[in-house]
Amino acid sequence: MRSVMPADPLSDLSLDEIEARAVPLLDPGVLAYYAGGAGEERTVADNRAAWGRRRPVPRVLTGTGTASTRGELLGAPLELPVLAAPTALHAIAHPGGEAATARACAAAGTVMVLSMMGSARPAAIARAAPEGRRWLQLYVLRDRGATDALVDEAVAHGFEALVVTVDTPIMGMRPREERSPFALPPGVEQPVVGDAAARTGVAPERFFADLVDPALGWDDLEALVARAPLPVLVKGIHHPDDARRAVDAGAAGVIVSNHGGRQLDGVPATADLLGPAVAAVGGRVPVLVDGGIRRGIDVCVALALGADAVLVGRPVLYGLAAGGQAGVEAVLDRLRRELAGALVLLGCGDLAAARGITLWS
Amino acid sequence: MRSVMPADPLSDLSLDEIEARAVPLLDPGVLAYYAGGAGEERTVADNRAAWGRRRPVPRVLTGTGTASTRGELLGAPLELPVLAAPTALHAIAHPGGEAATARACAAAGTVMVLSMMGSARPAAIARAAPEGRRWLQLYVLRDRGATDALVDEAVAHGFEALVVTVDTPIMGMRPREERSPFALPPGVEQPVVGDAAARTGVAPERFFADLVDPALGWDDLEALVARAPLPVLVKGIHHPDDARRAVDAGAAGVIVSNHGGRQLDGVPATADLLGPAVAAVGGRVPVLVDGGIRRGIDVCVALALGADAVLVGRPVLYGLAAGGQAGVEAVLDRLRRELAGALVLLGCGDLAAARGITLWS
Amino acid sequence: MRSVMPADPLSDLSLDEIEARAVPLLDPGVLAYYAGGAGEERTVADNRAAWGRRRPVPRVLTGTGTASTRGELLGAPLELPVLAAPTALHAIAHPGGEAATARACAAAGTVMVLSMMGSARPAAIARAAPEGRRWLQLYVLRDRGATDALVDEAVAHGFEALVVTVDTPIMGMRPREERSPFALPPGVEQPVVGDAAARTGVAPERFFADLVDPALGWDDLEALVARAPLPVLVKGIHHPDDARRAVDAGAAGVIVSNHGGRQLDGVPATADLLGPAVAAVGGRVPVLVDGGIRRGIDVCVALALGADAVLVGRPVLYGLAAGGQAGVEAVLDRLRRELAGALVLLGCGDLAAARGITLWS
Amino acid sequence: MRSVMPADPLSDLSLDEIEARAVPLLDPGVLAYYAGGAGEERTVADNRAAWGRRRPVPRVLTGTGTASTRGELLGAPLELPVLAAPTALHAIAHPGGEAATARACAAAGTVMVLSMMGSARPAAIARAAPEGRRWLQLYVLRDRGATDALVDEAVAHGFEALVVTVDTPIMGMRPREERSPFALPPGVEQPVVGDAAARTGVAPERFFADLVDPALGWDDLEALVARAPLPVLVKGIHHPDDARRAVDAGAAGVIVSNHGGRQLDGVPATADLLGPAVAAVGGRVPVLVDGGIRRGIDVCVALALGADAVLVGRPVLYGLAAGGQAGVEAVLDRLRRELAGALVLLGCGDLAAARGITLWS
Asked: Which of A148, C288, C357, D35 could form a disulfide with C255 if both were Cys (CB 3.0 to 4.6 A apart)?
């Protein structure tokens, strides 16, 4: 009789190990959708590598025996400067779907950013985790009325901010997705997309082609900011001049992102773009960043480069796939423990101190 | 019974995938001739890698929902800033030969540059695609009369320009070719080479040794420009001082090229040489570049570095091998779609805007 | 009958080869403890690689036919500028334990730095090698009285200096250790840790959690220096400003160390941090360094960067595992021979000359 | 019946291919002796790689259809700026030994540098190739009389210059050699070493330990120059200050060399040291270089960096092993053809023009 080695609980695993746990549990098409990127996925890989190219220098004897990961963002507290990035269709990773993610984020004391492409509508998230902080990601639709209706729903259900994605005038070319298409399983839908499609009589599959406005300009952002009863963060900033201009247009925050390497293969890693964006914003609004963050020390590097917080996308999906709400909690808790430990070892007692970390490169 | 997965149509494939489709269809000697380069093929590899070392930075909210790949070159329109580079002997890739390539280029709205070493004469190309744009590549022969006769034929058949290759005083040492020689199949010939050989009583195999003038100087270029009734582009420029001097000598355009890494192994990649050449030319004539371009984003990088257009050589041959005219069309159409998509995602509505792309490196 | 190739004696082996000899002799849990580092062990690897990135330039015709590795440190002679770094639990590598190491260091004419986590107490080391030079590494405990008692024991047994480790407010996250835990074999104990635990009624396993003071500041260092009847070296310095401040606080020496990559993965290699620390110290006290040193030429590089001596940790443990006292002697003797040979070939007759070596990089 | 593919003749092979041909023909101990280097052979590898890091930029339309590899060195003509470096014991590679090498060098119109450790004495080389150019490499012995006797023999047999090796006060540590010792086969001896040993009553095996003067200084070089009736080149220069000082001491030439990576592993590649040495010498005497040169383009890079000529060591031994005199001729002829071809393609008609090549890096 062969004894079976019990698997380590998710809470003992690094984010890479949780990913390895999730991969065999996912339908190949879903995995291709989650894991894949644009083109040859050079930017996907570089997003990860670029954090490691920066080496933080520990300080000693600072009297720091513990570190707090607590902070504040848009005027409300955050237990962890790691948000759940907006990603589509959580229900294909796990039946718990976005509601499970929302509960895990609430438990971790961080913000869930609900994707407009999600398998749950804003109201459902609010119901699942009423005490949790939540923001809504959206694409500006050609039909500004539909956009406004969605914003109204978000306001009505306690969403605190809007995250407008501006790097997707068209979808990127993603070979892995094209090679492994998948169909939505019975019972899974994209209610927000569905609403918008129904309102304009367009098939939901034509969302990007026919519903999203591909030709947004700065005046559209200004109009949105003027109309929206919520703060608007702009997601998908690469160039420092665009970071500056977004703030000038009224953005309440800037998210440096290349869409996880899913839009245009070959663009710079976000760790390379963050510093210039921070300098351009000059402290006027918070700067966030996503792309390739998998370790506490990556978060330290982002903070040292001037980020106010980071977002993680794929890790949340892998946690969800591996263990539902508990899996997402494991992901966030692991990052919290890694971050707190790294801060102590770098001589930083809190997030503010992390901004002063010297990076050697 | 095992069901057979139908292969993806060529039109869904990247240039690398089309190459993979073509390789098993080619005679080993032909493949060695097409794919091989000089020496250890370090420059062949670096040509490709060097485009990827430059990372374009997307701009957002530019109001750009679609991008035009249309431009103009030597006073005539071009639907795509990607020309078919002059390469020898299309008929050994596919029976359709240069005529198929010419039709595909015409369909794509771009220029075919017919090689003097081709398996078709200028007249045949003109007949195959009378509406297409066509340039003629030539080596200056010791026998200037033979050179002039060829130019006259080109003029008579609607060729718009001459492309003089200046990087081949001698043939490079190409181990793959030497190891896998091939004989011309029955029915395939090199009519232009044959004409020149017959005129001077030399065996066609001795073309480079006995017919091409190995000791061309700047005065020879000036003389050719003065005599030629067509604009003359100079192909094979590496050094910025040579780019400047070519323009001073009357060149109507400069093509930065290392002959696809086939002449001298160890020379710099063309992506590394392009910027200095553009600066040296200072906008007086168009600058083109070839070598290792396989993706739409590579074209964006070339445009950002100041190129007016690029040429692709091996991809056209692989497309031809994989599908004849349709294969070449697939190659050009793929590049067009990749380029258009990349332009939109970089925030550029047209080729002129691409010149302003910031490269991060 | 198959003849058996006798293994090379340890004295003919490089440090890498001695490591290879030791690995199969070690219990997997012990190996994981010795060899493992924090996180993905990027800093472990970079510590080694960083020495190799600096290339010393030989000088010729300097009249140097032999080189002395003799020097002086803290006012006493040293036959070799390579000390045994403080590492825990030598008795799990070999029954000879720290006593064997102490005898080997004495034989080599260098300092053994006894770890507070060792399997022998200071008195035992003094007994084993009374003529040898010995320093004591310690963590400052919350219970300053326990710290003082240990210092008194060290003084009483002829220890010359204290090495205070300041990079361990908490233990690093070490996946290899976590995956392969090991139990102390019968008869092996950590007497100093045990004493401190007994004194305060804490379980020894809670040493770092409950006994070590996690929140040391510069004032604590100053107080220790003021109280200690021995010179105090500070181990675990990364940043040049901390090196300067340690000297200001009265440190008798600075040890640039990242704890062998065991504390925070992703921090810079010590070879990268050494030069700035040397510049900051400005010659006021000796600067030592550890991390990844495996070859005589690595020692030359450290000397050229301004180190007064280096420490080796894992190599001593591997030598001990492979051959007890003789194994540690083999390690130190190999380094001595490699160093002496490298010095001659670099044109340096002694350690002082090594400081003038040009590094090409 | 299986037909056998006839092997390509040596004359069609690159130097790497000739090496591959030689390797299986060599006794393992001899191969270890020839191919091995010091330590982990990092410098052996970097010597080769460093030439490839420099990328020469071709010039076009220079009117150059052919290139001459002819030059002049120490006042006499040289058909090829590639000399046979001094290497020991040619007779263990091939029965033809140094005589075969000498004949091949004479046929190629280049200098053979006979090693003092050779299996033939100067007189034998002079007899084998009376018309060939020959230099003698020597180590300065403790017994200056023995040194002078050797010089006298060289003078008497038409050697034109002495090459004093200054990078070997002691032998480097060479693990491959140590692991695979070999005994001199019957009939092979080292006559010059034997003479010196006999004269002083020392065993030949103790040559480096007891006969060579390990503590040479600049005054010894000056004395040798003053005494020697021949020009003296200094081999083993790394640092530019030593290059300058060698010329001040009367050297007729400087050879930048790290002894093929056989002395101290981790020192810079010679391609990295050449430029500074050339600048320091300032044209007062020729500068030569060896280490890792395997291709015509490597020679071009060396010339562009200011070398007057290069030496190849291992390639000559591999050629000798693979084909005796004809093998060495194949090596030299291949380099000649590669060099001539590269020069033409770089736009250089002769060696003087090569000095103006632009290197891109």
From this structure: C288
pLDDT, tens digit (0-9, with 9 covering 90-100), for A53-62: 999 999 999 9
Q: Does C266 sit within 8 Å of A297, measured CB to CB?
A: yes
Between chain A and chain B, the number of residue pairs with CB atoms below 8 A apart is 86
Phi and psi (nearest 5°) for B326? Answer: -65, -35
Cross-chain residue pair A52–C39, CB shorter than 8 Å: no
Say whether A312 sits in a helix, a strand or coil: strand
Q: Which of D61, D333, D360 to mutate to test the interface with B (most CBs of B within 10 A)?
A: D61
D166, C61 Cβ separation under 8 angstroms: yes
pLDDT at res. C6: 58
Q: How far is it, in rounded angstroms, from Cα A359 to Cα C267?
A: 9
Of D175, D215, D264, the CB nearest to C58: D264
Tell if the CB–CB gap between C266 and A56 is shorter than 8 Å. Answer: yes
CA A326/CA A306 separation, integer angstroms: 31
Q: Which letter does DSSP use for residue A92 in this model?
A: G
- How many other C-beta atoms can be found within 10 angstroms of the C-beta atom of residue B27? 15
List the single residue in A with minimal CA-CA distance to B58.
Answer: A238
Q: How many CB pairs under 8 A join C and D?
A: 85
A173, A220, A267 ranked by CB distance to B55: nearest: A267
State the alpha helices, DSSP H only, in chain C: 15-22, 28-35, 42-52, 97-108, 122-128, 144-156, 175-179, 191-200, 218-227, 240-248, 270-281, 296-304, 314-346, 351-354
Chain D contact set for C338 (CB, 8 A)? 173
Q: How far is C345 from chain D (nearest CA, A)?
A: 7
Q: Give the closest of B295, B345, B358 to A239, CB-based.
A: B358
Clarify whether A259 is annotated catalytic: yes
Catalogue the E-assigned strands of A279-342.
287-290, 309-312
Using a CB-CB cut-off of 8 Å, the residues of chain B touching A211 are: none
| Pairwise CA distance, residues A99 & A121, whole Å | 10
Mutating which of A68, A334, A345 best tests the C interface, going by the most C Cβ atoms within 10 A? Answer: A345
pLDDT for C281 equals 98
Residues 6+ apart with CB under 8 A from C155: C229, C230
CB contact under 8 A, D65 and B169: yes
D239 and C59 in contact by Cβ < 8 A? yes
CB contact burial D32-50 (16+ within 10 A = b; e otherwise): bbbbbbbbbbbbbebbbeb
Q: Which parts of chain B have pLDDT scores under 70? A: 1-7
Which pLDDT band, with edges at 50, 70 and 90, does D209 fall under?
A: confident
d(CA C215, CA C237): 16
Q: Chain D residue closest to C338 (CA)?
A: D173
Q: What is the DSSP string of B159-175?
A: --EEEEE-S-SS----H
Catalytic choice (C90, C94, C157, C259): C259
C152 contacts: CB under 8 Å, gap ≥ 6: none
What is the per-residue pLDDT across D150-204, written as a single tens digit (0 to 9) for each? 999 999 999 999 999 999 999 999 999 999 988 899 999 999 999 988 988 888 8
Neighbouring-strand partners of residue D289? D256, D310
Q: Do chains B and C touch (3 or more CB pairs under 8 A)?
A: no
What pLDDT tens digit does each residue of chain C (361 aa) get?
344 555 678 989 999 999 999 999 999 999 999 999 999 999 999 999 999 999 999 999 999 999 999 999 999 999 999 999 999 999 999 999 999 999 999 999 999 999 999 999 999 999 999 999 999 999 999 999 999 999 999 999 999 999 999 999 999 999 999 999 888 999 999 999 999 899 888 888 888 889 999 999 999 999 999 999 999 999 999 999 999 999 999 999 999 999 999 999 999 999 999 999 999 999 999 999 999 999 999 999 999 999 999 999 999 999 999 999 999 999 999 999 999 999 999 999 999 999 999 999 8
